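Input structure tokens:
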């Protein structure tokens, strides 16, 4: 009896159907785990939008955005698809004036904001209704009440290579640049981390937790509000600027001494 059962099991293992069943089961397990992780990552910042918000946002979208992004936000040759980018991406791009874009170039420029907060909220609601994506962050993570020491360490590891250790910004390749963070609000900084605009990578909650993002915001706010212990910051751009200022300062002193000695000898 046991031998017959063993032969039957061996036959099932060799069957192509069993291979397909195992692969199918593996896909279900992996997909379920991915869905569960994403749900846990985004569940802390769920923003509710009303049907009226979505309808109003659609009207604004069709009037101001559809010419580039398509009537259903499916994207065109002039603009990418917005399905799945989330409300945070819309809020970041529109509330900084980067959108609507004025002209093509290496990257979108910050401009005066063209919409009210209510209109931006409505457009974010419409885009959010098209597919799951990063939502506008909860106010609890924007209070700058975290650990600035830990935030500074995280910033230097993940952000300083482009934005400078003091958040002063810096040049990239092909005319692109990492903007200064000196005037960026906590919400804009948070949304940039979760959406990865333009040249920036995405730091979702699996990479940097909401609490750690708050630590980074706390660090940047601390730099902004605290006086430099080393004197003048010179834009916070580092030793190159400091060396240049020192060089011209010393050169000026040498020229002044030379003129004074020449005048005295005469």
């Amino acid at each position: 009896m046991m031998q017959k059962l063993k032969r039957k099991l061996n036959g099932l293992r060799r069957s192509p159907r069993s291979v397909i069943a195992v692969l199918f089961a593996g896909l279900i397990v992996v997909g379920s785990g991915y869905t569960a992780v994403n749900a846990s990552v985004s569940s802390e910042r769920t923003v509710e939008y009303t049907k009226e918000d979505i309808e109003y946002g659609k009207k604004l979208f069709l009037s101001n955005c559809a010419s580039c992004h398509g009537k259903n936000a499916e994207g065109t040759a002039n603009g990418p698809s917005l399905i799945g980018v989330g409300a945070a991406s819309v809020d970041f791009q529109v509330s900084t004036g980067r959108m609507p874009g004025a002209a093509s170039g290496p990257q979108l420029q910050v401009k005066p904001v063209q919409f009210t907060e209510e209109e931006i909220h409505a457009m974010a609601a419409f885009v959010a209704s098209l597919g799951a994506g990063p939502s506008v962050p909860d106010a609890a993570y924007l209070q700058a009440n975290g650990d600035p020491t830990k935030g500074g360490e995280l910033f230097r590891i993940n952000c300083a290579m482009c934005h400078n250790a003091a958040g002063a910004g810096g040049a990239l390749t092909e005319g692109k640049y990492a903007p200064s963070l000196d005037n960026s609000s906590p919400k804009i900084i948070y949304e940039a981390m979760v959406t990865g605009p333009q040249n920036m990578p995405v730091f979702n909650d699996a990479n940097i937790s909401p609490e750690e993002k708050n630590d980074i915001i706390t660090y940047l706010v601390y730099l902004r509000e605290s006086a430099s212990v080393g004197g003048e910051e010179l834009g916070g751009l580092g030793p190159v600027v400091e060396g240049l200022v020192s060089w011209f300062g010393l050169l000026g002193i040498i020229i002044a001494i030379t003129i004074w000695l020449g005048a005295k000898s005469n």
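The radius of gyration is 27 Å. The CA atoms of residues 108 and 247 lie 36 Å apart.
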